[in-house]
UniProtKB/TrEMBL annotation:
Species this chain originates from: Ferrovum myxofaciens
Reactions catalysed, as given in the entry: O-succinyl-L-homoserine + hydrogen sulfide = L-homocysteine + succinate
Gene that encodes it: metZ
Gene3D superfamilies in the record: Aspartate Aminotransferase, domain 1, Type I PLP-dependent aspartate aminotransferase-like (Major domain)
Described function: Catalyzes the formation of L-homocysteine from O-succinyl-L-homoserine (OSHS) and hydrogen sulfide.
Protein name: O-succinylhomoserine sulfhydrylase
């Protein structure tokens, strides 16, 4: 395939909004305007020699959609342009992206240092799956750079973080953490799901790899699952990471790639609008007697507010976590009183969602682990969508006033 009406030189000069719409466009012989969806499992070769050359990487081109597909390639190129990455590898979900990184870069006897504030499934993967294969993990306070430094062992291979953390909204100084990691010869892997490259680009701050759940903001409408790994060509494509996807097959489907590709066209607009609504709602929640604490980086009350302004493009993001008096009973009462906001574990949707982390997304963790991560029974995670703020306030107030 050839790229028409675009060039690498122009792509480097484009603003993020333009890249989200124009990067990764590959037009076929029909010269279609919208990106094509290639629903095929395999590709036809001109002759036996070409087939052999493709399979042994002597000739570039499509081979099999488990690891080469034009629609998936377009998604990868567009997201790489947004993150400022040399390479992007798409996967079937955010968790499969994380698994692929671990399986590609770790072996029995290796050690991972991770933030204790992580998505519950990531913690389960480290402690319940990788541990069975001889990989050990140490969990440290996310923002404490000295704790990361002290946790390093001779066998430590990776630092893994989310920033902001799910659901506590704690941040880490990525540039500082990258320095700690690289002083020890360790790779820093950052889950950038909450911010997206519109707000935060970890590679520019020193991270070695970025992972995404494309299921969230990249799609933006809660339609499909997807994931991605981004970084240098050497670390992503010329490494065991790519070989794991090619062999094991945790691949992004062409249809899901196409949906996320179209979703990214409005990513900058959605993030701007959803962050603005989240800021208003966070400020409003702080005024309510039933709310004991609001955790939102855009608020001056957030302990890392200044870091958020520097690291996240001056925005707090589109997720607001808050705690209510009365613990789980009060939190569930607020959820059950909702009439507009969706009760679901997903986030990053144009529809606002409310989640009780301690009994859902982090429910498989022990009480001790949840407490160490700062996840309390009265905590609620609000992913702010595109509804009118007044309607969202009215829906939340129904339960909050009664609480």
């Amino acid at each position: 395939m050839t790229i028409k009406n675009a060039s690498p030189q122009a792509d480097d000069e484009w603003a993020l909004e333009t890249r989200a719409v124009r990067s990764g466009i590959h037009r076929s012989a029909f010269n279609e305007h919208s990106e094509a969806l290639y629903l095929t499992s395999s590709y036809v070769f001109d002759d036996a020699q070409q087939a052999a050359d493709r399979f042994t990487n002597r000739e570039p081109g499509m081979i099999y959609s488990r690891f080469t597909n034009p629609t998936v390639t377009a998604f990868q190129e567009r997201l790489a342009a947004l993150e400022g990455a040399e390479a992007c590898l798409a996967t079937s979900s955010g968790m499969s992206a994380i698994l692929t990184v671990f399986m590609g870069l770790l072996k029995a006897g290796d050690h991972v240092v991770a933030a204790r504030s992580l998505f519950g499934s990531t913690v389960q993967m480290l402690t319940g799956i990788l541990a069975r294969f001889g990989v050990t993990s140490t969990f440290v306070p996310l923002s404490d750079l000295h704790a990361w430094d002290r946790a390093v062992r001779p066998e430590t291979r990776l630092f893994f973080v989310e920033t902001p953390a799910n659901p506590t909204m704690e941040l880490v100084d990525l540039a500082g953490l990258a320095t700690v990691a690289h002083d020890h010869g360790i790779h820093l892997v950052v889950d950038n799901c909450f911010c997206t490259p519109i707000l935060q680009r970890p590679l520019e701050l020193g991270a070695d790899l970025v992972v995404h759940s494309a299921t969230k903001y990249l799609d933006g409408q809660g339609r499909v699952l997807g994931g991605a790994i981004l970084g240098s060509q050497a670390l992503v494509m010329d490494s065991p990471i790519y070989q794991f996807v090619r062999t094991a097959g945790p691949s992004l489907s062409p249809f899901n790639a196409w949906v996320c590709l179209k979703g990214m066209e409005t990513l900058a607009l959605r993030m701007e609008a959803q962050c603005a609504r989240a800021q208003v709602l966070a400020e409003w929640l702080e005024t309510l007697p039933a709310v004991t604490r609001v955790l939102y980086p855009g608020l001056p009350s957030h302990p890392q507010h200044d870091l958020a302004l520097r690291q996240q493009g001056g925005k707090g993001g589109a997720v607001v976590t808050f705690e209510v008096a009365g613990g789980q009973g009060a939190a569930w009462h607020i959820i059950d009183a909702l009439r507009l906001i969706s009760v679901t574990g997903n986030l990053g949707d144009t529809k606002s969602t409310l989640t009780h982390p301690s009994t859902t997304t982090h429910g498989r963790l022990s009480e001790e682990v949840r407490q160490a991560a700062g996840i309390t029974p009265g905590m609620l995670r609000l992913s702010v969508g595109l509804e009118a703020v007044t309607d969202l306030q009215r829906d939340l107030a129904r339960g909050l006033i009664q609480a």
